[in-house]
Write a structure and sequence with these properties.
Chain lengths: 417, 245
């Protein structure tokens, strides 16, 4: 395989500029992050900006055994630069349900609770709100009521420490034990980094393959349709043409990914405490580039062999499915990363980019396996580019019926003559 | 000196012989005609010359050597199946095609502008190709083949689809190319065009060499034995039956 020539870069530049000016590209690249921002950042920002409402809740205790506390201040949820917004719940006692109802209608309270006489047997507390409001108790109110019930039932009967344990029975902490036996605490950041990043990379790889290969397929189909392909082949070699297209559209895919990652990183920091290990990021980049080259070369070969855009998209669908297949095995890869199937998936070039990243997140993968996986993928990329350029030479100027598998294999063997 | 040399070249597709043991050469500075009916193998021969496809057997030399990527830059090509980037702006497309022929961008820009001015198309330089008339597109197609000032120009059926006025203009351009020292390979299925324009001719039929030589040589050798048959609408093919042979 010859090295990159000047013509390869001219073609790459042409493909890059042609694609980034497309409306669909601009829409996909910039609308997708805006959508992401819309569903993650804005609700958080709004939650931070809108002050929480203080509530006055009435109650009627028919059992006569509950001790409601004074006003309870909730610390609220802190997100982004806005800080936490506190809210206060005040409980007001009424002797009769009718009094509480009148207070609700007069707007003195936002809702009222009725604790029936048979509460101990049934465990039911009734919440009444105004007709137009939905009677759904807030998370804070349910938690506060549970606290009040437990305190009322057990205070002075058990120790303070037992009372606290009943209120908050278990705090599960996760620890990882290292190779030398040293334990380290596994926080939400580690869990998200270990499992979130491989899944995120898998999705990004899938999306970039999907969008860039569709541009590639469409480009080749258009050039075949416009009959300009013959002029191009009279000026360049099929290999230069193929490499130029892949390089140009690879740059388009990378630009798209950089925009998406920047938005996810900047926006995601408000809501997700993701910490990315530089080594993992480096490996993710290597697998992303090689995986992209592998699939894009394959798509270009398909574009050359098939006779129409529709047909090429159908054939390409099979390989797109292969690209996302590791996501189907994600549970196996994360829970049983050292199984034979997991190792195979992380070495097989169709699945290795996503599968190896998932395994790295879940276990300590031996260095030789990572090197073997990258080497196999690297050799496969060279092989696919060679095959695809032979298909380019053999079939780019053929219109009409698609050649059979036997004929395609014969052309590859014959060097695309 | 020979610009193009074919030595015992054969090519088949799906076990069907398209080109069978063809040898010929094109001399520098001449207009060389590839003559033959549709399906004779003229376009395949041109694609072999340009290394778009490769021969099963035989050797092809261009500018005295096997065709390299650099040698491709010295060739201009007008394919039979006309093709342009319909969505691209005219000047932008011409500069891109010239760059693919190894011309630096600035030089390509200057050449494109100068040629567009000579054809009075300069004012359309920022229009998309699809916005131009069919006649203009045909002129642009020809222009894209010569924008990089090639030494060898290959024209595959350059007159197909042209009106008489455009045909005359293209003929003039071909003669201008030869007068400026370029070598021209011209493929056509019309004998009359080959006779008036070409110095030498290779006639093909079903991928085989039928005639090869200068127009005068061919006339001398085969002129006496040739017969022009003109059909009169009334009589049709019956007229030919009157001849005893």
């Amino acid at each position: 395989m010859s090295s990159f020539s000047g013509k390869t870069f001219i073609i790459a530049r042409h493909e890059f500029l042609k694609t980034v000016k497309r409306k669909e590209f601009l829409l996909m690249t910039f609308i997708f992050p805006l959508f992401f921002m819309a569903i993650t950042i804005f609700p958080t920002m709004l939650a931070g900006m809108i002050p929480a409402e203080d509530q006055k809740i009435g109650y009627v205790d028919m059992t006569g055994s509950f001790n409601f506390p004074g006003p309870i201040t909730d610390e609220g949820f802190s997100a982004g630069p806005f800080g936490a917004k506190t809210s206060t719940i005040s409980f007001i006692m009424y002797g009769e349900a009718s009094e509480a109802r009148q207070a609700l209608q007069a707007g003195q309270i936002s809702s009222y609770l009725v604790i029936p006489e048979g509460f101990l047997e049934a465990g039911t507390i009734e919440l009444y709100t105004f007709e137009k409001e939905v009677a759904v108790p807030g998370v804070e109110l349910s938690a506060e009521l549970s606290d009040i019930v437990i305190t009322s039932l057990l205070k002075n009967r058990v120790d303070e420490s037992v009372l606290n344990r009943v209120k908050d029975p278990v705090n599960l902490k996760l620890y990882n034990v290292g190779e030398h036996g040293e334990p380290s605490e596994q926080g939400i950041a580690e869990i998200l980094t270990n499992f979130g990043l491989p899944i995120l990379t898998g999705f990004l790889l899938f999306f970039s393959i999907f969008s860039a290969s569709s541009y590639l397929l469409r480009g080749v189909a258009e050039e075949k349709e416009n009959r300009i392909i013959e002029i191009l082949l009279s000026s360049t070699t099929p290999s230069e043409l193929l490499k130029g297209k892949i390089l140009g559209l690879g740059a388009v895919g990378l630009l798209q990914i950089v925009v998406w990652l920047a938005v996810i990183t900047l926006g995601g920091r408000y809501v997700l405490p993701i910490r990315i290990e530089p080594m993992l990021l480096f490996l993710a980049l290597i697998y992303f580039l090689l995986g992209f080259l592998f699939f894009a070369s394959m798509m270009a070969g398909i574009g050359a062999v098939t006779s129409s855009l529709q047909e090429s998209q159908q054939v390409a669908g099979i390989f797109t499915f292969a690209a996302i297949s590791p996501l189907l095995f994600m549970q196996l890869l994360l829970t049983n990363p050292d199984s034979s199937l997991s190792i195979f998936l992380s070495l097989f070039p169709l699945t290795s980019p996503v599968a190896m990243l998932a395994r790295i997140g879940a276990t300590d993968v031996p260095v030789y396996q990572v090197l073997a996986s990258i080497s196999i993928l690297f050799i496969s990329v060279h092989g696919v580019i060679l095959f695809s350029s032979r298909l380019f030479r053999a079939y780019l100027l053929m219109y009409g019926k698609r050649p059979g598998l036997k004929e395609i294999l014969k052309s590859i063997k014959a060097g695309g003559r | 000196m020979h610009t193009v040399e074919f030595e015992s070249v054969s090519k088949s597709f799906a076990e069907k012989d398209i080109i069978g043991d063809i040898s010929f050469s094109v001399r520098s500075g001449e207009i060389f005609g590839l003559l033959g009916p549709n399906g004779a193998g003229k376009t395949t021969l041109i694609r072999l010359l340009l290394d778009i496809i490769r021969p099963d057997v035989g050797e092809i030399r261009v500018f005295g050597d096997f065709l390299s990527s650099a040698a491709k830059d010295r060739i201009g090509y007008l394919p039979e199946e006309r093709g342009l980037y319909r969505k691209m702006k005219l000047l932008e497309m011409l500069v891109y095609l010239a760059q693919l022929k190894g011309m630096p961008k600035k030089q390509a820009q200057l050449n494109a502008e100068s040629l567009l001015k000579s054809l009075e198309l300069y004012e359309h330089r920022n229009k998309k190709v699809e916005e131009l008339s069919k006649g203009m597109q045909q002129q642009i197609q020809f222009l894209s083949a010569i924008i990089h000032n090639p030494e060898l120009v290959i024209l595959d059926e350059p007159f197909s689809g042209l009106d008489p006025l455009s045909t005359k203009a293209v003929k003039t351009r071909i003669l201008e190319l030869r007068n400026s020292g370029k070598t021209v390979v011209l493929s056509t299925h019309m004998m009359e065009q080959a006779q008036t324009l070409c110095n030498r001719i290779l006639m093909l039929n079903k991928g085989k060499r039928v005639l090869y030589g200068t127009v005068d040589e061919i006339r001398r050798e085969h002129g006496k034995n040739s017969l022009i048959v003109e059909f009169v609408e009334k009589e049709g093919l019956n007229a030919i039956r009157r001849f005893p042979a």
